[in-house]
Amino acid sequence: MHFFFPPLEIGENDGFAQDKDIFGREAVGIGLTNLLSASTDPLVLAVNGQWGSGKTVFLKMWAGALRNSGYPVVHFDAFEHDYVGDAFTAIAGEILALVKKEKGEDAFSTGLMEATKKVGKVLLRAGMIYAVKAGTLNLVDGKDFADAVKDAAGDATDKLLEDVLTSREKDRVTMQAFREALGKLPGLLGKEELDEQGNPKPTKPLIFIIDELDRCRPTFALEVLERIKHFFSVQNVHFVLGVNIAQLENSIKAKYGLGDGAKTYLQKFISLTVELDVQPGKDRYTDNSSKYIRHLMGKMDDKGAEYHALEKVCNEVNLIALKKRLSLRTLERIMSLVAITAAYNKNATEQVFPVTAGLCIMKVLEPELYRKAKSGRLTYSDVTAFFEFSASPTDGSGDWNLFMNAWRYCLDETADGDFLAKCSSWGNGFGADRNKIVSITANELIDRFVMGN
Question: CA-based Rg of the chain, rounded to a whole angstrom?
């Protein structure tokens, strides 16, 4: 039985394999491919989703599907590269690596390397001047600035400034040469295809996928967007960003202090935004969280008695997951707790499965509330607020009523005798007073083990 869930391994050419496309997102990938192929203008497309919504898995599967269809693709993890001094270097390095992999050390790859190095020098020189200007507190411009630089930094800086002022035309030529070389890439990297009449089909665009941008340092994340717009915006080259738009807006606010203007600023760099998932439907067995819980249960590889106890607990977890819109990563943490608890004492877990499910969720989402449960200080009003009980149920029918009734039986000091009598067989089976069931479950079942971080 598996208690922990490693990341789903997606090979470079796996595409939307049936056993890995848990949420049926292949149709989204096909639609995005059609969109990018039809565009005659360079696009920056943001795939928006909350952290833990499965963006990385989707983008990796889509990248594989694109490769299998003959598209040149770069998949770039921005978070792994945000230590790089300049985002241009990181992005250009990935493109050069793809060219070298597909074409080897030919004349074009050598020429692209040289053009890239020249642009890098331009950026380095501009960065040095920016640093000098910042050192003079940006108080002067034009000729006055040149004089101030000379006074502040001496002959070396004066020579640098002179070089910059006389190299603007050369820099423009350098930038244009780089863009021209970049624009040739799709035709060189793509495979030539013919239509039914034997005529060449349009060149497939180069698709550069940038994932985890919202996890980067705010300065690096924004630099990536700026470099894409100013240096890599050429025909038939599209960029796709895997992001949490709200988090990216927060990065802009942190860097520029724009407040509500962050959304408008971001629109300068992103052409289109697509939501990874539309609003889930009401049927919990067709919702992504339901599908993922079933997927994780299948990974546990066990059909013994503890699995049946586990299944009961997971049904209750699913109720709360849908209500609170829990992320997939959060569900993984909860399900690990559930699996360990069910394996340790399947009989007790099956008897109090609504309490087990609720406490596992509480431990992950609200540790302080869970500590109250361990010490016997948790109240029914605490639970009602946390689980958003809308009203006390009148019977035990249905999963949600069963869940609410279990917690009411354990904690509601005002519960009447008729209600307690109806639930007495359930509580007595646990072998403890009803007001001790929650603390015993927390201490003796769920917290019997300390999980590593």
Answer: 29
